[in-house]
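May I ask you to comment on the folded chain given beneath this request?
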Amino acid sequence: MRKEIGSVTEQERDEIKKIFERRNGLNELAKILTYENTELYEKLVSDMGETSSLFQNWWDTMSTKYQWESHPDAHWEIDFNDCVIYLVTPE
């Protein structure tokens, strides 16, 4: 189930969109990169960890700022077109 629970500013949306796109790009790179290329692999792992932390920190900060509803089995999603935040729970 998807329930609208709030929104963010366009600037806040742009922040998470940039992190989201970086995370997706790193995940795609991880699919083709092997650990035999040690230097590049270590850089990828480091970047993925940093990006995941930035991603989670953004959600934590915004949820505190806007006091979004949460649920243990749910996660938040953003609609990048209109800056709306949804709480997504299992059906």
About this structure: The two ends are 5 Å apart (CA to CA). The chain has a mean pLDDT of 95. Helices lie at 10-32, 38-66.
